[in-house]
């Protein structure tokens, strides 16, 4: 039903849209329904759709398979505005996180999205962890320009609220938390204000790049996508398929992004996605009362940042996420059997934790491009974000492996997509 409504909107839009000035050829695409189709209505797709809708004379559709935006990974995370302290300076994760953090704080201020600059302590309990903190300190101060400071033992004792940091604590001063739902509502509102179309309940089930003369084939001389893209959207199980056209397509489908990628590329270039679930446990006791985020020092080779303590905007404590490799991206039940392991991790830095007040809360799923991929840039097997115009095609920007810090990076990723399509920041 909603997909049919969206189809009507596509037709409406195609009657009213204007010619574009993209920096790639767009022969037959002049008749496309939309200038841009963004697949995936998570925080990243919303940020991109909003960014592209700022392009004068453009028309953008955001296509989401569920009946609301932001119901997958973007609403199942720690809601932390990361400072960008973990990744090497040349990685997209570092660049987009640091830029994204500044853009996010500014957007929150401008549009009243709730957030708090909590700061965060990274705590070390042994020599190896201390060395890990020293590497982060050097990276931040010498290469990234991200503010951090050592917290003295005396200060840990006086202001630590029961936190143990036997081998030292490093404070990240620009870390914060954000209300991710308000952020997504804000981005959706800004997008729709700029005449963007949100097509809900619209799973993309097929995509075909067009070249002059019709759907791309080996006999065609112009690159696939040079005449735009055909996108098939299902109207529910066994339902109709609606087809729309767009000059450009952005794959921001999160856990569905590899499936979308595989709809376009030949079999030899298909990819596989791996899933690392993160289980969270809520904490209902009023003591110890903690007012900042607490993270253990990163462990070499770990696929996450360690079972940490985060706060929501009401000051409630939750612990997580751990790392549990699973086969099914829809397996989002919290695995209660992992509580004992989480307790052991938490007690290392918060010995006074009341373990009877910990209960399974929710889980999120990390889209991993490699099995057991590591989290820190210095680790072997580190997987960076992929945000690129795919070679051999026109007008396709592909986003893969947008795990943490994707929420923090979302606005900077959107800027980057704008640059990839238009050659400059289009804000
Ligand atoms: C446990 C955990 C903790 C995290 N903590 C943080 C944190 O504290 N800070 C931070 O910065 N980042 C964090 N992240 C990362 C962050 O949550 C993600 O990077 C971010 O939410 C990704 O947004 P997205 O829009 O790419 O993906 P998603 O939110 O998954 O959105 C993708 C959308 O695409 C839609 N879709 C998929 N396939 C199709 C299709 N075929 N047709 C139509 N629609 C489709 C989906 O329904 C979904 O709505 C965390 C991630 C996890 C898993």
TrEMBL record:
InterPro entries to which the protein is assigned, alphabetical: FAD-dep_OxRdtase (IPR006076), FAD/NAD-bd_sf (IPR036188)
Example GO molecular function: (S)-2-hydroxyglutarate dehydrogenase activity
Reaction catalysed by this enzyme: (S)-2-hydroxyglutarate + A = 2-oxoglutarate + AH2
Disordered: annotated segments: 210-240
Cofactor(s) annotated in UniProt: FAD
Recorded superkingdom: Eukaryota
Bias-annotated ranges (Low complexity): 211-226
Keyword Oxidoreductase applies: yes
Pfam family, one: DAO
Domain (FAD dependent oxidoreductase) ranges: 37-418
Keywords: FAD, Flavoprotein, Oxidoreductase
Gene3D superfamilies according to UniProt: D-Amino Acid Oxidase, subunit A, domain 2 (3.30.9.10), FAD/NAD(P)-binding domain (3.50.50.60)
Keyword Thylakoid recorded: no
EC assignment: 1.1.99.2
Entries under PANTHER family matching the protein: L-2-HYDROXYGLUTARATE DEHYDROGENASE, MITOCHONDRIAL
Family to which this protein belongs: Belongs to the L2HGDH family.
Protein name as catalogued: L-2-hydroxyglutarate dehydrogenase, mitochondrial
Organism this protein belongs to: Hypocrea virens (strain Gv29-8 / FGSC 10586)
């Amino acid at each position: 039903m909603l997909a049919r409504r969206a189809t009507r909107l596509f037709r409406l839009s195609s009657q009213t849209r204007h010619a574009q000035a993209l920096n790639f050829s767009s022969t037959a695409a002049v008749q496309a329904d939309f200038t841009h189709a963004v697949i995936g209505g998570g925080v990243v797709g919303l940020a991109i759709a909003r960014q592209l809708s700022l392009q004068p004379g453009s028309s953008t559709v955001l296509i989401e398979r569920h009946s609301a935006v932001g119901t997958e990974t973007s609403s199942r995370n720690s809601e932390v505005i990361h400072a960008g302290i973990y990744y090497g300076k040349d990685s997209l994760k570092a660049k987009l996180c640091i830029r994204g953090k500044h853009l996010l704080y500014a957007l929150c201020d401008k549009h009243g999205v709730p957030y708090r600059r909590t700061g965060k302590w990274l705590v070390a309990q042994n020599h190896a962890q201390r060395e890990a903190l020293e590497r982060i300190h050097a990276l931040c101060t010498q290469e990234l320009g991200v503010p951090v400071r050592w917290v003295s033992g005396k200060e840990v004792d006086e202001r630590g609220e029961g936190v143990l940091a036997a081998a030292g604590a490093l404070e990240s001063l620009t870390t914060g938390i954000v209300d991710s739902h308000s952020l997504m509502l804000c981005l959706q509102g800004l997008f729709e204000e700029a005449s963007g179309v949100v097509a809900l309940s619209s799973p993309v089930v097929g995509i075909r790049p067009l070249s002059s003369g019709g759907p791309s084939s080996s006999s065609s001389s112009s690159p696939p996508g040079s005449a735009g893209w055909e996108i098939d959207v299902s109207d529910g199980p066994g339902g109709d398929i609606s087809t729309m056209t767009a000059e450009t397509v952005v794959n921001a489908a999160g856990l569905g992004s590899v499936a979308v990628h595989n709809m376009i590329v030949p079999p030899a270039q298909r990819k596989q996605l791996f899933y690392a679930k993160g289980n969270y446990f809520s904490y209902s006791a009023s003591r110890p009362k903690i007012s900042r985020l607490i993270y253990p020092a990163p462990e070499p080779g770990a696929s996450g940042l360690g079972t940490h303590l985060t706060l929501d905007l009401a000051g409630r404590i939750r612990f997580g996420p751990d790392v549990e490799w699973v086969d099914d991206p829809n397996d989002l039940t919290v695995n209660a059997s992992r509580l004992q392991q989480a307790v052991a991790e938490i007690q290392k830095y918060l010995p006074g934790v009341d373990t009877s007040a910990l209960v399974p809360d929710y889980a999120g799923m990390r889209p991993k491009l490699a099995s057991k991929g590591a989290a820190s840039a210095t680790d072997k097997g580190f997987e960076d974000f992929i945000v690129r115009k795919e070679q051999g095609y026109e007008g396709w920007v592909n986003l893969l492996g947008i795990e943490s810090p994707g929420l923090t990076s979302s606005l900077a990723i959107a800027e980057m997509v704008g640059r990839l399509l238009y050659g400059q920041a289009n804000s």
